[in-house]
Amino acid sequence: MSPGDLGLDLLVGAGIVVAAIVSARLAHGAGLPALLVFLGLGLLLGESGAGIRFDNVALTEVLGLSALILILAEGGLTTSWAHARPAMPAALLLATVGVGVSIAVVAVCDRYLLGAPWRDALLLGAVLAPTDAAAVFSVLRRLPLPPALSGMLEGESGLNDPPAVLAVTLLSAHGHGTSPLNVVFTIAWEIAGGALAGALVGLLGMLFLRRVALPASGLYPVAVLALIVCGYGGASMAGASGFLAVYVSAVLLGNARLPHGPATRGFAEGVGWLAQILLFVMLGLLAAPARLPAQIIPALIVGVIAVALARPVSVFVSTLPFRLPGLSRVSWREQAFLSWAGLRGAVPIVLTTIPLSARLPGSSRLFDMVFVVVILCTIAQGPTLPWVARRLSVIAPAEPHEILVESAPLEELHADLLTAEVPASSRLQGVELYELRLPSEVNLALIVRGGAGFVPAPTTILRAGDRLLIVAPAGAREQTERRLRAVSRAGKLAGWFGEHGD
């Protein structure tokens, strides 16, 4: 490329990004996941559309894995550890045991229903096993789910990439003779080493960013992302899971009290969106539309197996320990929602580039089939998730949500800005503010009712549809959330007695 071509190339590239952003806004209004729009845009720009030829599989693999690092970093930075911590045991089981069960179910069905060789069947199961962090974070965070349920899904999507990547890499290797003991040791080191590297980077990053005064506020978000990427590089060079290191370090840094934390999360969200756009458009360019129709029937069969059989079985097996006494029980409604919310996105398609780069026989067919499976599953699952959540009664519309605002006074006061909505079914209706009995240091600063905001008095009565703006010191945030949930579910008197145990 010559300097004279730079203007045209930048114009085309920026135009693609702007078109993707506008399309994503339209898709959001129609209830469709953005990844469908980005993949479609890539197909339109490809050989069968605008005529752009792109068939560099090795470059797609490298850039795809790099984009997944940024997407996973954004997911970790915006994950609330207070909400995710209680759900982490279940998320770990879903990300490990669940992945193994899903691989086995898909492989057995592919072997005996479609007649695929064992290696191909296992490879198909491995690439379809992980849920996609970008799809889960972007779709589920629009749903007001209970913290434990959303924590399970977000934690699983952040943690299940390493086992899947390892399985696909081992199955794609040309060499044979790897002993089961070596495989077990490799898996153990990948997980332990990745978690250790991520924790080390996260803790050292906290110390560094708290002690070093950077000359510009814009350097803090850059420093955080750079540290997270360092975690990936260090873990990978040590033979451990770089993806696990990314997620662990991002969760630690995202939940630490660091300078300009809201700005860092906002910056990471923008970078994550850009990575999604480039990744999905690139995967769409790599696909060959002429070959895709031949894979529709096999993809339908595999998609039904993955969604209606493999996912529910993996969720059921992974949550079996939570039927034991002393552990928080995962209800059948939550299991059903976990099964339907196992969204697949870019991760399965990117994983198919590993055997494609290794030139395995049948890898092109695998890429085409998984591409179609992802599209079909996304169309079926993404738009229906809100309806499924309502039918299963797992929505918690009165849950407070943090508003990420860059505000130096709030940071200095170690306070959080929360918002909660009073739904029609909530027992918050008819409650006077003083009856909420929020902690004394918490301030209910504003109520938005009918599009207009006003400062409430202690005797203000809450109505359905009210939006509450609450300023809570960090130490009182959890107590505030518990109190609002208790009153919303049980009414003011039952909520009060439940909170105070009398």
Give a description of the structure.
- The chain has 502 residues and is mainly alpha-helical.
- The protein is built from 21 helices and five strands.
- α5 packs across α14 and α14 packs antiparallel against α15.
- It is globular.
- The N and C termini lie far apart (75 Å).
- The relative contact order is 0.12.
Low-confidence stretches: 492-502
How would you sum up the global shape?
globular
Helix content: 55-70%
- Give the end-to-end Cα distance, rounded to a whole number of Å: 75 Å
Radius of gyration: 24 Å
Average pLDDT metric: 83
Query: Into which percentage range does the β-strand content fall?
Result: 5-15%
Order of helices and strands: HHHHHHHHHHHHHHHHHHEHEHEEEH
Taking the sheet with the most strands, its summary is: 5 strands, antiparallel
Count every beta strand, where a strand is a DSSP E run of 2 or more residues.
Answer: 5
What's the tally of helices? 21
Biggest sheet, spatial arrangement of strands: 1-2-5-3-4
